[in-house]
Write a structure and sequence with these properties.
732 residues; alpha+beta; five-stranded antiparallel β-sheet; 13 strands; metal-binding; Lipoxygenase; fatty acid biosynthesis; metal ion binding; LipOase_plant
Length: 732
């Protein structure tokens, strides 16, 4: 039974209300009695004497003993490594390395499930049974129903063209014409009639019945970018703009070293010097300034996946139907505040007896050069799509946040004010992560089957965690400074000066960051008056210690972890956590279908090498558009990803948004209630700021003819790309 709340009436001082929000199991299944506390929050040292033992007993019950397989009715939070992504017992080729617990594959921890070990690989868990999450982390009935309905619609959309490919015995079938892609949105696709009424036809019929008002034709919703300007994906200006206002605004950084040079071993990967030379860049920016001036004035920016991807190239290229390069893209900040793409460099390391292949592509008006530039953009965007999904999105939000949630439930009593501050930021994350392990990031799942790194996708995210992830750089200001995009300036708004003044993600994000930080500061300072109160709080110190030493155990000895000694330390830590769970996730998630729903704009995979890698091949020049379609994802890959992105880009009817929903426990204290009201007002101001910015014609990265306005950090919007605002948590 789901227990929402309990109200005790008839008491001398009025009713007492208990906010339960928890599933209660029958006593024959769970004979232990449950404890529920009132809205009143207490630090451990301030807990009434009669409640102290109950407070500790409740925490002990949530930790478990680390033994046995978890049941669906359990409420136990514990840690484990990612040892359930592969399925070697089903097929040997589905074996995958364990992520976490080793120097080779460091990784955050997930929730322990305790399933039996694999017979083939004793280090891995079997994927039999359920993907356990503690009972109170499950979706609500409203969320579950909307999720099932939306998934049914999207899977149906993806299934239809896939079935045609299956019938043709060609799962690698690509789109024959660009008009075939348009048909997905304009005319829809008929439900195919299978010759043999087998499982596939039954699945189609079941899905049709699951979709209200389904008929014989289904269509994908027209993505916002395609709806506004179906040819915008071809424009270099839009290619550059989306690095600042698209779904992956976290990768672009300032060029701080010149000439560009790889840090990889040249004996293994070939000459480290980049082919993007001073002479080449000079030709591209000669109408503006010299290269030396551009470096001095900090006008050159880069997205660099060269060293991250190059070690995977030879392995990925042995897999049929995909390819890979080390890649980087260089941009110049023009006087009107927009970015001009200068060059894309693609590198193949020495392999199969061949030396390193390295080539730079630049924008061109000459026919062959123009098409090679389009191919280079397709390859680079496939790499960017993979990095976005595996690192900017999955690793830095979903994956990194799960340990915070586990530690919060294990070490902070539900009476603790910090637990109650963090609670809405934890909603549904563990469940959505479990679903991701089931179908998205698992062996032969959606990511592996549709993204360039293929079976090495999760290994790639492990390398990124090892080389790039630092808690102290997950705060927005620290992230911008680390990427060289901003410098500290006490006289500038938010204390930062942006080197790219019109950077929509950063501009809106900094306003939201400040609002979040002020709300957290008001809350924390109400309960912690001085440093000694922080240092003497055993639950709080155990919580932060466990996040570092258990949740992110493979990085526990890093010197950059913040200390927790003062209220200011606590404010910084919590603001970072809630930023990642709310704004960071919104920025990289809710615009996915708007920009990647039309996959030529953001292909997830490049299936063939650059046409010029083999100089003996010239036939592609006869029909370069057909060759590009072969490079793009197949019908199955494209529609599968489109369906998933459609699901991920939508909000649940019971979504809880920043500044809209106030936890009942916050309203118990008048000072906290007033602080929340101020927070809500700041978010309303942010909405007005975003509306004004999107109407400002001088801000060319935010709008213009046929341009999707930047709205993903708009708190209360019910229009536009994101739907309905910034949720508290990673709930989808």
């Amino acid at each position: 039974m789901y227990l929402k709340h309990i109200v005790l009436n008839g008491l001398p001082n009025g009713p007492i209300e208990f906010n339960c929000d928890s599933w209660v199991e029958p006593k024959f299944d769970k004979p232990e009695k449950r404890v529920f506390f009132t809205f009143k929050s207490y630090l451990p040292s301030q807990t009434p004497r009669g409640l102290k033992s109950l407070r500790e007993k409740d925490l002990v019950s949530l930790r478990g003993n680390g033994k046995g397989e978890r049941k669906t009715s359990d409420r136990i939070y514990d840690y484990d490594v990612y040892n359930d992504l592969g399925d070697p017992d089903s097929k040997p080729e589905l074996a995958r390395p364990v992520l976490g617990g080793s120097k080779k594959y460091p990784y955050p921890r997930r929730c322990r499930t305790g399933r039996p070990r694999s017979k083939i690989d004793p280090l891995s868990e079997t994927r039999s049974g359920t993907f356990y999450v503690p009972r109170d982390e499950e979706f609500s009935e409203v969320k579950q129903n909307s999720f099932i309905t939306k998934t049914a619609e999207s899977v149906l959309d993806a299934l239809l063209p896939s079935l045609e490919a299956v019938l043709l015995d060609d799962p690698g079938l690509g789109f024959q014409h660009f008009s075939d892609i348009d048909q997905l949105y304009n005319q829809g696709m008929p439900i195919p009639k299978l010759k043999n009424q087998g499982p596939l036809q039954s699945l189609v019929l079941r899905l049709v019945k699951a979709v209200e008002d389904a008929d014989d034709v289904v269509k994908f919703e027209t993505p916002a970018m395609f709806h506004k300007d179906k040819f915008s994906w071809l424009r270099d200006e839009e290619f550059s703009r989306q690095t600042l206002a698209g779904v992956n605004p976290y990768s672009i950084k300032l060029v701080t070293e010149w000439p560009l040079k790889s840090k990889l071993d040249p004996d293994v990967y070939g000459p480290p010097e980049s082919a993007i030379t001073t002479e080449l860049v000079g030709r591209e920016i000669k109408d503006f300034m010299t290269v030396d001036k551009a470096l001095e004035q900090k006008k050159l920016f880069i997205i660099d996946y060269h060293d991250l991807l190059l070690p995977f190239v030879s392995k990925v290229r042995r897999i049929k139907g995909t390819t890979l390069y080390g890649s980087r893209a260089l941009f110049f900040l023009t006087p009107d505040g927009t970015l001009k793409p200068l060059a894309i460099e693609l590198t193949r390391p020495p392999m199969d007896g061949k030396p390193q292949w390295n080539k730079v592509f630049t924008p061109s008006s000459e026919a062959t050069g123009l098409w090679l530039w389009r191919f280079a953009k397709a390859h680079f965007l496939a790499h960017d799509s993979g990095y976005h999904e595996l690192v900017s999105h999955w690793l830095r939000t979903h994956c990194a946040t799960e340990p915070y949630i586990i530690a919060t439930n294990r070490q902070l009593s539900v009476m603790h004010p910090i637990y109650r501050l963090l609670h809405p930021h934890c909603r549904y994350t563990m469940k959505i992560n479990a679903l991701a392990r089931q179908v998205l990031i698992s062996a032969d799942g959606v990511i592996e089957s549709s993204f360039s790194p293929s079976k090495y996708s999760m290994e790639l995210s492990s390398v990124a965690y090892d080389q790039q992830w630092r808690f102290d750089r997950e705060a927005l200001p620290a992230d911008l400074i680390n990427r060289g995009i901003a410098i500290e300036d006490p006289t500038a708004p938010h204390g930062l000066k942006l080197l790219i003044a019109d950077y929509p993600f950063a501009n809106d994000g900094l306003v939201l960051w400040d609002a979040l930080k002020q709300w957290v500061a008001d809350y924390v300072n109400y309960y912690y008056k001085n440093a000694s109160m922080v240092q003497s709080d055993p639950e709080l110190q155990a919580w932060w210690t466990e996040i570092r030493t258990k949740g992110h155990e493979d990085k526990k000895d890093e010197p950059w972890w913040p200390v927790l000694k003062t209220p200011e330390d606590l404010i910084g830590i919590i603001t970072t956590i809630v930023w990642v769970a709310s704004a960071h996730h919104s920025a990289v998630n809710f615009g996915q279908y708007a920009f990647a729903g039309y996959f030529p704009n953001r292909p997830t995979i490049a299936r063939i090498n650059m046409p010029c890698e083999d100089p003996t091949k010239e036939e592609w020049k006869q029909y370069p558009d057909s060759e590009l379609l072969v490079c793009f994802p197949s019908e199955i890959q494209a529609t599968k990803v489109m369906a998933i992105l459609d699901v991920l880009s939508n909000h649940s009817p019971d979504e809880e948004y920043l500044g809209k929903h106030m936890e009942p426990t916050w309203g118990e204290e008048p000072a906290i209630r007033k602080a929340f009201e101020r927070f809500s007002e700041r978010l309303k101001e942010l909405e007005k700021i975003i509306n004004a910015r999107n109407k400002d014609n001088s801000l060319k990265n935010r709008g213009g003819a046929g341009v999707v306005p930047y709205e993903v950090l708009k708190p209360f919007s019910k229009q536009g790309v994101t739907g309905e605002g910034v949720p508290y948590s990673i709930s989808i």
